[in-house]
Amino acid sequence: MSAWKRRLAMIAVLAIVGAACSTSGDGKASDGGASKDRRCPVDALDDATGPVEITFWHGMARQNDVVLTELTDDFNASQDQVTVKLAFQGTYDEELEKYRLALGGGDIPDLYQGEDTQQQFLIDSAKIVPVSACLKAAGDEVDAFEPVLNQYTVDGTMWSMPFNVSNNLLLYNRQAFENAGLDPDDPPETFDDLNDAATQLRESGATKGPAFAFPRDAVYLEVFSAKSAELYVNEKNGRTGRPTAAVFAQGAGKQYYETLERLVDDGNALYTGEDTAFRFLLSITTDDSAMAIASSATLGTITTLLPQYPNVTLGVAPAPGPTKGGVLVGGASLYISNESSAAKQAAAYRYAKWLTEPEQQARWHVGTGYLPMSEAAANTTIVQDYWTTNPEYKVAFDQLGAIPDIPQTRGPVMGPYAAVRQIIEESLDSMLKGGVPADQAVQQAQEDVTAALVDYNRRSAP
Amino acid sequence: MATERAMSGRPGRGLLIAKRIGSYALLVAVAFVVLFPIYITVVNSLLPTREILARPPTFFPTSPRFSAYTEAFGAGHLGRYLVNSFIVTSLITAGQVGTAILAAYAFAFLDFPLKRTIFFAFLATLMVPFEVTIVSNYDTIVNKLGWGDSYQALVLPFLATGFAAFLLRQTFLGVPRDLRDAAALDGYGHLRFLGRVVVPLARPTIAALSVFSFLLAWNQYLWPLIVTNDEKYRTVQIGLKALRGESLDKLDVVFAGTIIAAIPIFVLLIVFNKQLVRGLTQGAVKG
Amino acid sequence: MTAPTNAPTLVRRRRRRREVSLAYLLVLPSLLVFALFAFYPLVRTFQEGFYLVSPQGERIRFIGFEQYRNVLTSETFRNSMWVTAKFVLITVPGGLILGVALALLAHRQLKGIAIFRTVFSSTVATSVAVASVMWLTLIGPQFGLLNYWLGREGAEAIDLLQDPNTALYAVALSTIWQNLGAVFIIMLAGLQAVPDDLLEAARIDGAGSWARFRYITLPMLSPVLLFASVILTLNAFQAFGQIDLLTPGGGPLKSTNVIVYDIYDKAFRGGSSDVGVASATAGLLFLILLALTLLQFRFLERRVFYGN
Lengths: 462, 287, 308
Description:
The complex is a heterotrimer of chains A (462), B (287) and C (308). Chain B has 287 residues and is mainly alpha-helical.
């Protein structure tokens, strides 16, 4: 036995010694995002012989995948200079992990679809050709609403091409409203309205339980801050430099936490926790609840689902909360790699730009429920026809157009997004499951977020 | 038992039958509990989401529909992925069993310097969680060797396991020493002895091990996802994950996909059940 | 070569040398795989723990034991170890006891017993991922049947995976179920090795069924129990998939944040990923596992009955 022990100990020691001795030092000096070549060779395609093939990593599953494939096939068929190869990489998070691993020297894709939360990380990876450089070199413009363009602009540079756009909405069951004696055409605009409506829904028996259900979700705190016209982190939400501190706790954040706490205490809201099974939405179909906040990206799924439920008529309203500011632009955008050859960069740019054009945006909207990013796309016949039968989509689109162009509605840009959201989610748990008072929970969350920002900056090149 | 006898008054045939009925009842009840999660998953795969959510729940679908299976097959690209899974899993299984037979023979029948140290190195691999090695292995395979999108990337890191060598060594130790001596007298070298005597004797364990290896390899998800981009090389678990992507209205499809991915393994289990039990008898019983 | 050759010794020595090289040749393929895909990553893990690593995965500078120290004293690590310990203490004995019970039940001469044996071993055909999805039908939110059965009319809906007091037990239950098939097979194999005449003799001597189990069957089972407990313990310490699928994020109030999940979460978290801290945690986990496996062998080996 003791021989075993000695040998095992030896292995462990060897491992540690190996660690200490190894001087290979993979620590390449990081050169930061700024010093990299920022030119975009948009003309390189013309010099290429034969079609240029590019790889496009994306996180579009199921129906979204189908429509993206159709669009891409059409793009490939429409010209003979560029061939786009799609590669589904799982969820946005999994896609990012793969990208991160490839940064160690593997092949990063020519074009990469990154969720809005990945912006700072991707900029700091120093592997991105800013789209604004391509636009400038080509003398192009992207036809999209200002808030959409601004969402992907940091410190005056637009790093990526907007692609799939969504925002948050209030979904409710019109029939339940009627059964409770509420006017389904006058949905709640604020959380106070929502609380009153929920009381009536529950007391009238229109819902079996709390009439509003919400999951463990950090996004809506960001939206609530933007709707309150307040910043989430300093450096103008990280748009003028890497943020160093969170600032949400005093005003909007405190109000939001207290609102949720009150809704739950009043028996008017069900907190569904980490909710990968969409209980907060599905409970509407069983009349357990009647209201939920969700991304417009879920509308497509919901509308296909609803015919099964004669007890539900979908109502869609702008996201509830203060109206001083506006909602945030959610979704994802496309990043061009500066490691690719000039021809591939040009090819990636051409394809990404093509996807933003009204015709494609219209088909994308009708097929997936992501919002058309421009007025021109909305005015196409297919979208207009679609809206006559599916008016709920127009609510989200109108909300997008109504976002005031102020710094507070440009969503926070943060490196450690995942950690920040996790901190918020855990603090929601601590408040709603652990009994920590709202003001304490939000204060703690703010301190933890600041710590995460500081940690990111400490580990990043200046 | 004494009370039973006293109560029935007449021991013998009647008691025996009663006991037997009791045994069957218990067996059936336990079998029901063990199988229930599988059964209810199958039921749910045949129901629209609305009925999965309905209360009271449905246990016997009156009008089952199989559309979820066709949808899972199509949307998850499960056809192509199943083929890939078979290729990759077969290669891994063959490799694991092969390397384990060789190494186990050395540990069981040969003496060599550092034997115990090397054996412990094998055991130590069991203590390294796969999630811990993944970053480095990606770096080796994809960044350094440039093998992204290839069968060797999917197979190579799994060609040997400490568990397989450990299990086979235990089995080989059970082969009587006299056999080796007798074989040596017949002029058998080590390799011939291994091939003609040891492997046939250990066949049940090897079969059991193959099933286990197959199972583990079949169910890999994270590694195939990160080392492949091309559909040509992707495996069935990735297709499953894609189904889960937007599972809001498609609970039935998620369940159907799960069943599809599990069926090959269940078939394997039923076919090899006897070997599995016998094989582990050999391997595990020796301490 | 001045001494007169002693033929038999030379032959023996040559044979011995051939045997040694053959032995190395036989272990070489496995060792190569291990060296490249287990030990090298392990060494790198220990190494990386000494570096400050950027979110993009580049080493920034050597910082010595700082991260190891920070991890050891952190609340997260303490919580993860505690959660892991609970998970191990539930799933290992739970799996062993149920596995033995099932094996005892199926270890009889009855017509059709083979069918029951197949059924009892059936969960061996499920993976962590498949088992977790299947268990969603029982413990998943809203449609989970167990939630439904446990819920009382009018009371607040039960959601086992979202309640910090029950989440870990719910995940453990699905894990025990998933392991059950394998443990059952191993235990059945063990039971079949218990000689019937020994039990018969004890019965004639008047030993009751409990006494026979306690003093004959159990000691005879001890080698397989050791084998199964080591494998189950290692598995439980490395639990990841079920946590990720059933309680992504580590569960309500971190109540299911087992150590490997915590490592994964630190290493693979987009812009927040910190390979340095994750590596330091992983290094510590390896040392703990090593120590525990040794203890387990040492403690159990003394009680194991090997026969001859």
